[in-house]
Amino acid sequence: MKNNVKQHIFFVDDEPKVREVVSKTLEQLAVKVSCFASGAQCLKQLRSQPCDLLITDVKIPTMDGIELLTEAKCIIPLLPILVITGYGNIPMAVRVMKAGASDFIEKPLDREGFLSTVKSLLKPDISDKPSVRKPLTNTELKVLYLILEGKNNKEIAQLRHRSVRTIEDQRYTIMSKLGADNLIELVKKAATMGLFELPTKK
Fold first, then answer.
1. CA distance 35 to 57
2. Nearest to 10 by CA among 77, 55, 63, 60
3. Helices 164-178 and 138-148, interaxial angle, to 10°?
4. Where are the chain's structural domains?
5. In terms of CATH architecture, what is 8-128?
6. CA distances from residue 126 to 83, 177, 185 in whole angstroms, order as listed
7. Which range is least confidently modeled, 53-67, 85-99, 141-155?
């Protein structure tokens, strides 16, 4: 039986009219859309709701789009994120890509180009891998950082005051959520974010 669960897009913009127009545009792709006026609202839901794609404007109050991007990646490391930037703002585009954005699109939004970009970022086979892109718990994040530092299960168990079997189970859950094929990408991303240092050859 085919899974008919709609893919879920989070959209962040502080202007109500923009949220309304973009939401209606995205719904043409037969997806579920949740709109947020701030990054904080988005992050709160990201910790408890499934999300297949996050779209955010760079200029939002309190927490800008790059800060939101960074925080969102800590919750769901492999979440695709599309950032909307000002037209011709090349330095900003470079910043968002270095911060981990999957892609960026310039204002004013071209409807067809926008939808084409969104479709390219949505994985058509996500329903076949229901565990991928689920948020990591705080405990799983702590274990993940230790894994990225090169610690083995026994070392992590000692540091976390848990049994080796518990760490093995947590490690399996983490890999299931992240997707083992993306582990190398994640390691490189974590290193660029300063979470740990890649070992150097001696």
1. 12
2. 55
3. 90
4. 8-128, 138-192
5. 3-Layer(aba) Sandwich (3.40)
6. 21, 12, 18
7. 85-99
Q: Confirm if 103 and 121 have CB atoms less than 8 A apart.
A: yes
> Could you tell me the two tokens for 199?
């070992």
Residue position matching structure tokens 């083995």: 152
Alpha helices in 35-160, H assignment, sequence order: 39-46, 65-75, 90-98, 111-121, 138-148, 153-160
133 Cβ contact partners less than 8 Å away, ≥ 6 residues apart: 50, 51, 52, 76, 78, 79, 126, 177
pTM: 0.64
Please give the Cα distance from 170 to 52 (Å, whole number): 23
What three-state secondary structure class fits 36? strand
Please tell me which residue, 18 or 108, carries the higher pLDDT value. 18
CA–CA distance, 93 with 67 (Å, rounded to integer):
14
The answer to whether the 8-128 and 138-192 domains have the same CATH topology is no
Domain over 138-192 is classified CATH 3.10.129: no
- Residue 177 has a CB neighbour count (10 Å cut-off) of 20
Judged against a pLDDT cut of 90, whether residue 11 lies above it is answered with yes
Biggest CA pair distance of the chain: 57
Give yes or no for a contact between 77 and 65, defined as CB atoms under 8 angstroms apart.
Answer: no
Overall average pLDDT of the 107-126 stretch: 82
